[in-house]
Hints:
Six copies of one chain form a homohexamer.
Chain A: E1 2-3, E2 7-18, E3 22-29, E4 34-40, H1 41-47, E5 54-59, E6 65-68
Antiparallel strand pairs in A: 2-3
Amino acid sequence: xxxxxxxxITAKVKSVKKGDVMSLVKYEITTPxxxxxxLTTESCEDLGLKEGDTVKLVIKAIHVLPVKE
Amino acid sequence: xxxxxxxxITAKVKSVKKGDVMSLVKYEITTPxxxxxxLTTESCEDLGLKEGDTVKLVIKAIHVLPVKE
Amino acid sequence: xxxxxxxxITAKVKSVKKGDVMSLVKYEITTPxxxxxxLTTESCEDLGLKEGDTVKLVIKAIHVLPVKE
Amino acid sequence: xxxxxxxxITAKVKSVKKGDVMSLVKYEITTPxxxxxxLTTESCEDLGLKEGDTVKLVIKAIHVLPVKE
Amino acid sequence: xxxxxxxxITAKVKSVKKGDVMSLVKYEITTPxxxxxxLTTESCEDLGLKEGDTVKLVIKAIHVLPVKE
Amino acid sequence: xxxxxxxxITAKVKSVKKGDVMSLVKYEITTPxxxxxxLTTESCEDLGLKEGDTVKLVIKAIHVLPVKE
Lengths: 69, 69, 69, 69, 69, 69
């Protein structure tokens, strides 16, 4: 089972809130994780990203896809 | 400093690969994290998501936004 | 009329479910279609994608933009 | 194997073009397919979407996730 | 010509930078514009968004779709 | 405060509509703005984008992230 995505994080469901059309699900990350981001090289240079920097990784919940294997 | 996004994870940069237009950056998650996803209620029910379930959270790298505070 | 997107598929509306803020619309693909995806070269190599392979193309409904010409 | 996404279309790889950081892959849809979109109820009403309407479904290639099962 | 999206802003191309697979295009907004965002109600309440507030609207370039009518 | 995104537009909140899970917020752009898009070089060439062209920039509301600094 392989995904064409850099991020596939194991997580445990903590809560499910069902709405009329959309639902919000919350998770706990249960194992150490690595992540990857793609951004324009211009943005990368504006941020001056380099090894060892600490950043916040902001992700809208709509972009997180839960999969049951 | 507040974001209109459910996910804002502290991470440390491990590597930066710069391309002509796009760059790929990798991170280590340095603190325990929680995440949230929004999906259609239909998908939620098809998956049968409930508290305690283990899932993979798949996120394309392009949807991860690094921010320096 | 031209879009800056690789995928523009002709489809017929089958159902519309209106919610308070978001709505879910379903379609039938009425003509043979081609699609394209962009992913990191790393993910592409991890998947080992090559001509003739069969894959599932997974797309969250939120990323599908209906247009009436 | 279940995805928290409304769209999971079987497709065959036609071509792969690898770039320095990102790659572009093209597919043929090999089976009849249904699709779903989520949009704001406001946009849905502005479009006047109803059963039987013909639309174009526009999807940026970056939002298409290939998966090998 | 109608889009199932809340934002359709008239803009003038200022520069085009073509890469091997992806290109970066810059624009000037030539007419006063309104925009809309959808976020979880939780994020909306955490931000405490109300009429008259000033915010930054952050959008990754990959999510901007140019269309020629 | 720096974002790994090409677009960060100052805006004023005009209205907030809260739904059960998702909310829709509208804004006025209060200062002249520039924007950027990333698309495949193929789409860029199909559109024939060049300096001075007028286009519509279409953005689904879900991709707009409000931030309070």
